[in-house]
Amino acid sequence: MRKKIVAGNWKMNKTLEEGVQLAWEVNEFLKQNSTSKQVSVILGVPFIHLAELRKIPKKHIGIAAQNCADEASGAYTGEVSASMIQSAGSEYVILGHSERRAYYGENDETLIKKVNLALENNLQPIFCIGESLEDRNANKHFDLIEQQISKALFHLSDTDFKKLILAYEPIWAIGTGITATAEQAQEMHAFIRKTLSRKYGESIANQISILYGGSCNPSNAKELFNNKDVDGGLIGGASLNAENFIQIITTLS
Ligand code: PGA
Q1: How far apart are CA 45 and CA 82, in angstroms?
Q2: What is the pLDDT of residues 44-71, one digit of tens each?
Q3: Per-residue pLDDT tens for 79-99?
Q4: Given Cys at both, which of 27, 102, 113, 163 links 70, Cβ 3.0 to 4.6 Å?
Q5: Which of 201, 209, 117 is CA-nearest to residue 164?
Q6: How many CB atoms within 10 Å of residue 33?
């Protein structure tokens, strides 16, 4: 069976102290509530939080970086490599987020390098894909998503591909308070799974968790997660508050 996952994406929020407090609060809840055991909970946090948050037992919470460098090491001032992230105890890295694509010029070529480095360093990529409203209105969204997936990921072997988690995040829904409807989410997730299955076969496609992201919150999570091909969520704003994030985890449990 596919893993159900609720992953938080804190983006550039929370001081170290605030982040530590939030993460331990979530951990405390998970420790005490066995119903949430079927759900993997991951926190996507700023680099400086990684080592400190890894003091939380792996049993309840996985830790993700939100990016990694596209080079292995060397003279790249300000960059953080996949091996450094791994050495801080993280298991995951969010890659291809639309904010990184839009504001930092990340393209398919950069992402291929990042995905490869993440996998070489035993980090599981949480790979984000998503279309703009313009693309959707022009009815180009399926083609665009297919391209985002095939260009950055289809060079991977079956074994490596199975390590991926995908996150469908329509850009028009991120941080806007507008969510995709349950139908739109299911339609796209099913399309994504079909795309994976054409390349890697049905069995592998059925093993990949595909998360929905974009203004997911405690009041709409249930409707979104109730869909056959939606295996959980990548949560931005609502992951910054323990109560909201816990409610979303409970929804999926
Ligand atoms: P949001 O962000 O939940 O605040 O819309 C989701 C994301 O960007 O991962």
Answers
A1: 14
A2: 999 999 999 999 999 999 999 999 999 9
A3: 999 999 999 999 999 999 999
A4: 113
A5: 209
A6: 14
DSSP 162: T
15 is written with which tokens? 């001081």
pTM of the model: 0.97
To which H or E segment does residue 111 belong? helix 108-120
Q: Burial level of 12, CB count in 10 A (0-12/13-18/19+)?
A: exposed
Q: Is 169 a catalytic residue?
A: yes
Type of residue found at 93: V
Amino acid at 104: Y
d(CA 45, CA 123): 15
Distances (CA, A) of 83 to 68, 116, 165: 9, 12, 19
Nearest atom of ligand 1 to the alpha carbon of 174 = 5
Catalytic-role residue among 49, 97, 141, 189: 97
Q: Is 7 in the pocket of ligand 1 (CB under 6 A)?
A: no
CA of 52 from ligand 1 middle (Å) equals: 24
Q: How confident is the model at residue 200 (pLDDT cuts 50, 70, 90)?
A: very high
Give yes or no for residue 6 CB within 6 A of ligand 1. Answer: no
Closest CA to 192 of 235, 227, 240, 242: 227
Interatomic CA distance for residues 236 and 188, integer angstroms: 20
User: Rounded to an integer, what distance in angstroms lies between the CA atom of residue 238 and that of residue 209?
Assistant: 21
The three-class DSSP label of residue 50 is: helix
| Residue 241 DSSP code | S
Question: How many CB atoms sit inside 10 A of residue 45's CB?
Answer: 28
